[in-house]
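Ticket 4471: requesting a sanity check on a complex prediction with iron/sulfur cluster. Repro inputs:
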Amino acid sequence: MIFINSSSKDSFKIFQSFSPIFVPFGIGYLMATLDRNNIKSYYVDEVFEKDAFEKILEICKNINKPYIFGFNVLTVSYKNALILSVKLKNKFPESIVVFGGIHSTMMPEESLLNDTVDIVVRGEAENIIVDLFNCLKRRNYPTQLNGISYKSGGKIIHNSENFNQVRLSELPEFPYKYFENNNYNLGYVMTARGCPYNCIFCSKISRSSNVRFMEKTQVLDNLEILYEKYNIKHVGFLDDDFLCNQNRVYDLCELLRSSKLYNKMTFSFAARADNCNAEVLKMMYSSGFRSVFLGFETASEDIMKSLKKGEKLTSVIEAIKVVKNANLSVSTNFIFGLPGENREVRRKAFKYAKDLKLDLVKYNNATPFPGTELYNIAVAENRLNVVGKYENFLATAVLTENPFKKIRIPFVPKGNTENQIRYDILFGTFIFYFNFRRLKYIFTKQDLSNSWYYFGKNAKELSKNIFKILILFVILFIKFSEMLILYPFLSKNRNR
Ligand code: B12
Ligand code: SF4
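Returned structure tokens:
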């Protein structure tokens, strides 16, 4: 089986060169699961591979037919996954194309309506991947497997959901050996899966509301591998809400403090604001935790309620103060262009960013990912703007788009224009970062960036990138200049 991590290459490449490249955890665990069953699998990453198709042809020379191509598909990478599947099917008509990942999980029919997609795997797949592989190798359809959608007699069949949840304590060790080349920033772990909330803007791979955790010793073993084998000194925890089980955090911190990693590694994490309390943060700081990402989302209490996050604006504000008191740095994002929002709300966000002395802030454009309630709202209000096959479904599009070839914002709520949202995002970014202290922070505290950017490990690497950094500055200069010229005229835009 050849796994393909599909990627959108259409966004402006200069920003991509400063984004850390993550190891694809989903594919990694699937490969390790196959490995454990003595099944060899292969892997191609479109994120950095110049010609993924050629690379796949190379691999195919050494494996037996039927070839099985397994794609990990996010909404923004759906188009490229399809393009590659067409090329592969043309070359190997007998091959089997499987789409997995969040986008196909949310939209299985849409994927299967393409002639080149044979099977969609919905949800997490460690506990079915071996059976799936064995079936497909025998050229059988996995009709009995839960979590599968496929075509039969011109119809699309959806087998029932895979209720048998993956237990993280039973996962094999993460197979770093497949990802050792220099393209990846290995310093991330994901030690829990699942989230009990249902925010209207969030895609969730598992519909179940329970959160599953790795054993603390598993986590420590993973960190030790990263430190000892790969010399990683800062690790970001990608768990949706690292603080959701505080007893586990206490235990893990205790284990860390008594381990050989103590004082050698630092960590960052993401959490919900309502779980931040002074006591746990103090203990985390003493165990090496240095930065936290909190989703601020909006500066309006009413909109916060409508997001169904189960959180209050006041608790986010309080949490930021508590985090800062505990000496941790805090980064956050606001979503601009949410239903019910206006420019006043966005201006309030700028004020919060300044008054609360946030370390890093991102203003994203609201993106109604398929399967989310926001998507349904956008459809119901006839305000869903899909370009091609979701090529514009990028929450950071405003900042990273080519200034000469703008990306259409996928949802513009009533009472706003696209340009108001676009230039408010740029304005907020400009006033926040046009500041010597913050620019210094960006370049000197990269570990604390919660993986938003990566300019190089040290002064030497950074200087190698100096030319690209200059180009980046020129592009930002063009964007901000345009914004500053147009900004005074924006309020005059007529609301739709
Ligand atoms: C790490 C991460 C990233 C990393 C790496 C992304 C990657 N390719 O893995 C980075 C920072 C680069 C990133 C970027 C973005 N991300 Co992101 N990211 C995540 C995060 C936090 C973890 C992903 C992960 O490792 N999950 C754990 C593994 C185990 O799950 P998994 O990947 O889904 O894989 C399992 C199943 O899907 C299935 N599976 C997956 N692939 C395949 C293939 C086959 C053949 C089979 C059978 C099964 C299968 O089996 C796997 C194992 O169980 C998720 C949130 C989350 N909790 O999952 C968001 C998430 C995936 N990201 C999201 C988004 C929106 C983005 C961005 C578009 C953000 C933006 N700027 O707008 C960019 C897009 C980047 C790009 N150009 O492709 C959304 C995706 C929504 C969507 N519908 O596409 C998510 C779900 C967050 C959210 N809740 O909204 N992201
Ligand atoms: S945004 Fe965070 S809290 Fe909300 S559903 Fe997604 S992971 Fe859960």
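Notes from triage: The longest strand covers residues 289-297. Leaving this open until the requester confirms.
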